[in-house]
Amino acid sequence: MMRKEDGGEILSKNLLDWLTRVGAIATALATIIGVFFPSDEAKRAAFAVAILLAVGSGAVFYYQRRRAARFKIAEALEPLAPSAALRGLLPFEEGDALPGRARDVQELYTLVASSTFRFGVLWGESGCGKTSLVRAGLVPTLRKNGFLPLYVPKPTSDPRDAIRAALAKHSDQFARRGDEDLRKIMRAAAPKGKGVVVLFDQFEEFFLTNRTPRSRATFAKWLGECVADAGLPVVFLIGIRADFFAQLQTLAPNVPEPTSPRTTYQLQNFDAEQAKQIFVAAAKADAIPFEPELIDAVVSDLESEGVVRPAELQIVGTRLKRKNIFNASKYELAGRARGVLSSYIGDEIKQSANEQTARLILRLMTADVVETKSQTDLSLDDVARGVGGAEHTSRPEEIPNILNQFVAARILIHTDDDKYNLVHDYLAPYVRTATEGMETNVERANRLLKRYLAEYKEDAKTRIPFGRLREIQRYTSAQVKEGDKARTLMRKSARAFYAAVGGVLAVVILPILALSLSGKFLLPQHRASRVCRWLAIHRRPRRTSAVGILAWLWGCRRPNRFCGI
User: Fold this and answer.
1) How far is CA 107 from CA 101, 112, 392, 502, in A?
2) Considering only 189-203, 315-329, 497-511, which range has the smallest mean pLDDT?
3) How far apart are CA 294 and CA 336, in angstroms?
């Protein structure tokens, strides 16, 4: 209440000052005009001018206020340093200090460096820090001890291509040997006395891209041959989300016991005490003056069933740092952890010059599936096509600026292939909540195809109308239309359309054309004119072109003149 009263007093004071200035302007004008006119007329003229100025200034003020509201930019956020300890969802890189994970790094290295190790799995919940553990912890430890780590950030549909790309990055020598057998190249790349460690991150992408046992079989067979070849100095570690862990069984029997407890390592979330220690260390590293009461409140809010998710700790800590919230009272006003998390995406969207387009771009990054981010990285053209044509979207040349803004905010990642995606699966639920009610071209096309597929399962005669078929063919994501039934339905729908067009041509146009060319049914000019007039009277608006064709075939060489076409 006190704050409202203060605001009302300020508004009243500003209004009183404004009216006082209007009166002062009127008095000054009356003095000046009084030099040329009688006193009464000077006063009336002065007050008339003052009123006009007041109305004009009020109109300008109202216009500027509306314009500022329309293009309102959110509160500027403190930029993040590349080496920051609190860095949102951006993973830690080689050379960065990895707080709280020294024991995990040592245990994982001991597993991988074992002489009996050929294949293993690093698994855990989304957002528990698997990527940071591998990139900032395991990779430098392996390199320090003489191994050659080949980090594969995301497997392609055929992970062997990703391994070749990692080898090419390691040395141009291996890039020039791209056509050789991959096992031969890896054997040549292995350091003396040590070996190559292939580190697959986000391996769930392989299962999302290859949904059938047939599409997975080729790589599974090759992987099994590598694991079985004891003379090949190459071992494999797969990083995967907990909800995809069971799918590793599809690699058997090519890979013996792919989920054996002896060769798997589960990365756990932080416990409350560990989270507190890490938060204190991160704040100290970034020179952030968080009060102890604030740190206790954050850890308490984020704790669930005795654990704290590292991703949530990073998001909340980063947002507090960027908004200069250092004490418990400001944290309370921000809505505590839940309020900070829910505003994470919304605040970044408000930083954009066009919020509508920003929402559509982020929505597009989760358009393929509900529970995760897009299964494929999207190019600039993919993004422009996915959000283009929507109402209130910005000009195409503004889209790169919005993408770069989200990259700088650590919401999107810009890959080496000049493509974009969400920086982490963990963001997907927040993005979908912040963009609720939006629908990209991809989502609409996916929804339409799924609807027609459901109807097709009930009735095999179902076909997609041609207009919607074109939209589905253009925008539907590859993962949605790759199924056999989807391809069959689209193929039958296209054939049905072309068959209908061919039928019309065969039944209507071709007989008339044949008869007309034979010369038997050509009418004299005056009779053709009557026919054309009759057709013009009885024609429908959509049949204008048909009337013109018939008129020409019946001998009227200038149908526009006789038919009014």
Assistant:
1) 10, 9, 53, 69
2) 497-511
3) 10
